[in-house]
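G.,

No rush on this.
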Amino acid sequence: MYAYIQGKLTSITEEYVVLDVDGVGYEIWCPHPLCYQSKQDESVKLFTYFYVREDIQMLYGFYQSEEKDLFKKLLNVSGIGPKNALSIVSETSVHDFAQAIEQENDAYLTKFPGVGKKTARQMILDLKGKVDAWMQTSVDDMLTIEHEAQPNHQQYDEAIEALLTLGYTKREIDKIAPTLKSYQADSTDELVKQGLQLLMR
């Protein structure tokens, strides 16, 4: 129904963003919303998918059209709902996902939340041969705004070590890790502070 929506980014939460289009605010659920912090009050274009069921209507948005296409394909897999599909899109590129499907790499697919061996095999069965074109796409071409916004690995690793030293458990840190990775930070100290704010919520 909506191919894409372009509007002023007026609000950002941990789960969705709000785009204002001529006075109408569209609540759009997307991968790593906090990565759009640098775009606050600017015009942003998201490729959108309108998900409709008897008891729910939601807009999902993606920085690239390929991510939207992956999301749609995942929804056609038995056992995959929008929440699972969004988490998969959040944690992989279409290039890497297509490669895992074509190579029948169960180990890669089962790393996603809510995906066991049975669901991984179902994804391979349903999608093999339908996503292979994405394997020809350069990984560099698939970089999205959330990847560009992530802190460098050294800063992130040092921040995690600091939080562990402060007495937080690995389980507690794992819960905030996806959000922490999405933050832009100029230093490890700043990233640690952001981590502490998340842990204290």
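When you get to it, here's the other one too:
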Amino acid sequence: MPWNNLRTGLGALCLCACALPAAAAQGPDAPEAAPDPAAALYPSQFGCSGLPEVAQTPVIEGRDGVFYRVYADIRMHHPFSDKTIELLARLSRTLQDQGTTLVFLPIPTKSQAMPGRLPEFARHYGYKTDVSAAVYQDIVDRLRAAGVVTIHGQNAMLAAEAGAMPYFQADFHWSSEGARLAAVELAREIDRLPQAADLERSEFETRQTGTQVAFSGLRQLIQRNCLHQVPEPVTATWKTEKSTLDLGLGGEDDGDGDGGGLDLFGDDESRVQVAVVGTSFSDMALANFDGWISQYTGLDVVNYAITGGNQFGSILSYLTSEDFARDRPHVLVWENPIYNNLLQYGDQPLLELIAAAGGACARPLDTRRTGPDRIEARLDGTDLAPGDVIFADAGGEGPVSAEFHFAFDDGSARVQLLERGERLRHTGRFYMPVNAYPTDRLAAVSVTFDRPVPEGASLALCAN
């Protein structure tokens, strides 16, 4: 690695001198060089230098080759306000009213999952293991008190056997072992649900398929600042499959003449049993999170997680899709890192999820098509409440954005844009809350999509 790529921890050090033994660099009679203060404060097993000062992602090195991000992995505060709890509880109740139980999994930070490998100098950043655990516990307690079924992800990770790595050493994602531990805790919580006894269980078999090295941008960043190779994100890989008996491919006939196969045409039995939404933690195939859930619950799992979708990409794509509308799951598992702020973009995303999760968008508005990409409806005379939501349905998948134009009785207007990122599913369904406006003065709404939409495009009102 070129020496000019190295950075120092504290103060500037002579890179040329670092490249040679001290005696050769200074001569046999030269005075002994002063010890490097950075090396004393931030000892490195891999000759790493300046990691805490890396502008893109500051990192510190812990024990056993484990690295922690400063701003995400060892932070002490996580933005879970009372408003966040309230809206998550509303989402949970709305889903439950439609027959789906929300199970929320706040992924613990790496320091919460692997506190025993933190370096001693983590305290210089204000980190305290007991306080961090108390913060996580408080969030779980508040969610559960509000009626949200919540998985204690930190306890799951702390159950790892001695020497096991639930997270990768030089990356912030969990390994297949971390995903397995989370699934064990998740299965316990699902078994406590009132409807658990009514769910049809199957036998699943999980076998190891080898080991795999995951791609890690974080590791690449760390390696650029280290002399020796840092640990690669290697994990055992597993494959979970339904047993042949449950598939009806073997074994004795069960007496009803169907060879023991599942009834694929039953009503409640044919529903999706468990749907998973979330981030790259769930979307990472080598972690086998969905497979582990099936292994420990005996339930079929459909994985809708999206890498790079941030807090809402996956669940928003799923809840606004036809898949969800026509086949609501018994259980919806929503995984999200604890450090994600669910109110980062205000309350609109959660209010949109609540509207999409409900069955209350039953008041169609008298929609007129005013252009190939534009529809509108009058709102004067409509009994609007502050908690209502306008539902714009493009009539099919494809549109990436919807621009809502609200007109008021005094001639003024406001514009709001909803846009789906490139990684999200472009379902063509957009929900815009009206709680930011005086609803008694709203006269009309028009929606412009980013592309032409069919004649069936429509507007509807979702009641609070």
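The longest strand covers residues 204-213. Residues 129-145 form the longest helix (17 residues).

Enjoy the weekend,
O.
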